[in-house]
């Protein structure tokens, strides 16, 4: 299936959902709730090695909660990351492939079950393969600073992303989700790579923001979106893992800067301490607030809404109930 047909699948899903589809919530968060120890350079991807069944269970929980799109467990799964754990290239690639397979199996099993129930309100979900930023791989919190240092060039970022992208594409997800991109250079690298590799799967690219105005690097979103707006590979652009109170302003801003669909899935408002590797309490938003926010974000034009770190299936249930009420 080519890019146009796959994009049409997503378009149809959004229509079926009444104009706004629900993305799932914090994946690593839910793994931790179930006891996974992810304080590790591979973060949530350690579960691909240690407990793939738990990954499937978390996908099922988000599907039950009403997610129309499930995002795979590959955010911090990288070939160099796995190699430094002593895995071979073949094993590393097979884990990446497995991240897609687990989500597809969960989606198929869930759909098999609910489609037999008359009057259910679910849609057949799509699977988005997560591609975390270079900063996620560095595991030093730089997905929230955009500071990759002088020696990180466009080519270096393309080289970092290339093989993982190829393997994930080969595994056959419905979508590609570039997550927590903190600067213009990496956004550009991702777009150029999609084109060079002739990828036939629609992608979204999500940035972080730590001030609610700009990318973490200090670059404006106008600059960051320049290359993305020109690319047919990009279906949606937006924000993930930024605090919810920034989202309204950022949707308004993006709406002026792009014709692409807008995707937002903020975290709970807690702040990641990259050194201590823990979430610090801050202004934190619960499910009821997310429910209210979701209506507002939809009314402002967001087409894909979900949650990121520290949100859970109950957050997604609240959003889904709200957005599908009409
Ligand atoms: C989205 S952040 C909380 C992911 C974890 C981070 N890249 C780290 O490894 O410290
Ligand atoms: N998809 C990832 C994003 C981390 S910022 C997760 O939810 O764990
Ligand atoms: Zn997050």
Notes on the structure:
With 326 residues, the chain is α/β, with parallel strands linked by helices. The chain has one domain (3-16, 29-261): Homocysteine-binding-like domain (TIM Barrel). Helices cover 46% and strands 14% of the residues. Helix 11 links the parallel strand 6 and strand 7. Helix 4 runs parallel beside helix 6, helix 9 packs parallel to helix 10 (221-229) and helix 12 crosses helix 13. It is globular and about 55 Å long. S-methyl-methionine (A1LUD) is lined by residues 43, 76, 136, 139, 143, 180, 241, 272, 274, 277, 309.
* Major sheet description: 8 strands, parallel
How many helices? The count is 13
Helix content: 40-55%
Bound molecules: S-methyl-methionine, 2-amino-4-mercapto-butyric acid, zinc ion
Structural class: alpha/beta
Sequence of secondary-structure elements: HEHHHEHHEHHEHEHEHEEEHEH
Strand order of the largest sheet: 1-10-7-6-5-4-3-2
Based on Cα principal axes, name the global outline. Answer: globular
> For the record, what is the CATH homologous superfamily label?
Homocysteine-binding-like domain
Mean pLDDT: 97
The CATH topology comes to TIM Barrel
Count of domains: 1
Counting DSSP E segments of at least 2 residues, the number of strands comes to: 10
Low-confidence stretches: none
State the CATH architecture.
Answer: Alpha-Beta Barrel
% residues in beta strands: 5-15%
The CATH class turns out to be: Alpha Beta
Please provide a brief summary of the model:
The chain is α/β, with parallel strands linked by helices.
